[in-house]
Amino acid sequence: MNDPGTPGVSVVICAYTEDRWEDVLAAVASVRAQSRPALETLLVVDHNRALLDRLGEEYKDSPDGAVVRVLANAGPRGLSAGRNTGIAASRGGIVAFLDDDAVAERDWLKHFAEAYDDPRVMAVGGRTEPVWASGRRPDWFPEEFDWVVGCTYRGLPRGRVRVRNVLGGNASFRREAFDAAGGFATGIGRDGSKRPLGGEETELCIRLSRARPDAVLLIDDRAVIHHRVPEVREHFRYFRTRTYAEGLSKALVARSVGAEKGLESERRYTTRVLPAGVVRGLRDALLARPGGAGRAGAIVAGVLTAAGGYLVGSVRARRGGVTFSVVGIEGAGRD
């Protein structure tokens, strides 16, 4: 039962491919099983008519208390526009986002909602745990780079703490945040292409903090989801592609909000967290522990590849080769 004094929560899940059909159904089921019920679940389909029709048929008779609404992305192809479509259609005072290949633990929304008792809180993120297709983490894959597969990485603070930005696949925002700062920027993040871009939630959170200097953004690591990592993402080729794409994305974020804020957390990460990871990997190698040298090498390779992407992205941005835009959210619903 929801506390009548706290806002209702709308959950937005963006989907784009029928290849994840079972994952999408599992994601929705995990929302329906929450100890603090969602006001509604909005499934936003990204320019895929077959998937839109199939999901519409699947959820056309949602039972009472488990409303699922299936919507077409009303903007350009991509995750940002899909999220904006969900925000605009939502009725809740809080809007939460869940990846289409993840499942939330039972108290996920409960922990999010509790933080909003403080009226200054504008965003709350959670902890995302990887579920490896092979059944175990690859020996060479450093925990410091779990963001490569959309998960919480070593170096993030533990507990409920203030942060610069939340991570988009497991996050929530007070509705007022979008009124103040607008929606997710299109042109940053996933857009249906083969290049795994990101950074759209970072750009939004920095923009929000500028629009509302008193805003508090939190991560509560008790709000847990489990994110499926497909087999193709367990290989170094994807690792390299994703880190390069992140460098491109960070260049766009820096162009939007300035390098000082856009790279503030990244400087701490590269000067403190990653060197410690390299030392840990080399120590493990000396102790003959599996994958130690590989993890140290992957950290170095990841930094160099991301730096290369950032340099290329910065040049493109200066030449005007990349554009993005921020749109206001005109939602019809409120709880």
The average pLDDT is 90
Structural class: alpha/beta
Tell me the total number of β-strands: 9
In which range does the helix fraction lie?
40-55%
Taken in chain order, the helices and strands follow as EHEHEHEEHEEEHHEHHHH
The quaternary structure here is single chain
User: What overall geometry do the principal axes of the alpha carbons give?
Assistant: globular
Distance between the first and last residues' Cα? 15 Å
- Proportion of strand residues: 15-25%
| Count of helical regions | 10
Low-confidence stretches: none
Rg for CA atoms: 19 Å
Biggest beta sheet summary: 9 strands, mixed
List keywords for this structure.
335 residues, alpha/beta, 9-stranded mixed sheet, 10 helices, 18% strand
Description:
The chain has 10 helices and 9 strands. The protein has 335 residues and is α/β, with parallel strands linked by helices. Strands 1, 2, 3, 4, 5, 6, 7, 8 and 9 form a 9-stranded mixed sheet that branches. β1, α1 and β2 (40-45) form a beta-alpha-beta unit. It starts with 8 loop residues before the first strand and ends in a 17-residue tail after the last helix. The mean pLDDT is 90.
